Amino acid sequence: MPKRLPLATPEAAYDEAVRMLTRKARSIAEVAAGLREREADDRAIAGAIDRLVEEHILDDEKFATDEATALVDQKGFAPAAAVRTLVERGLAEALAKSAVDAAKDGRGELELCAQALRRHTRGARLDQAQAGKEARALARLGYDEEVVARVIEKAEAAE
After folding, report:
1. Which residues of the chain have pLDDT under 50?
2. Which residues of 84-94 are buried (b: 16+ CB within 10 A; e: fewer)?
3. pTM
4. CATH topology of domain 10-54
């Protein structure tokens, strides 16, 4: 496959950024990093990002809201793990925390952990082996050991 040419103009960088965004939602920092990997210069990156922001195609606040909701509600991440993930994706910590707080929608960590367990088990009964497996899964989602233990204990007692 022939080597792609560096992105020398804001227009070329813009076109590449749009291609990147059609494949996956990204933060401004992720788009900039992707354009740098394609050897775009700083002027081209700034021009492309400015245009994407002006056209409301690239919006870190919307990205933070959407990604926080996906992480907390759909993937079952613990709030602190969701914040870390958003910060790793280039968002400011304050914006990440705000988005995750909104996604929590007043639910505490115990409730979110129990919800993640119900989603993962699809309502199946927990035997001892299954409880251990689910506890490890919840820990991987970032839930504190004490929270996981309480949620698993409550699920086992409900059986």
Report:
1. none
2. bbbeebbbeee
3. 0.88
4. Arc Repressor Mutant, subunit A (1.10.10)
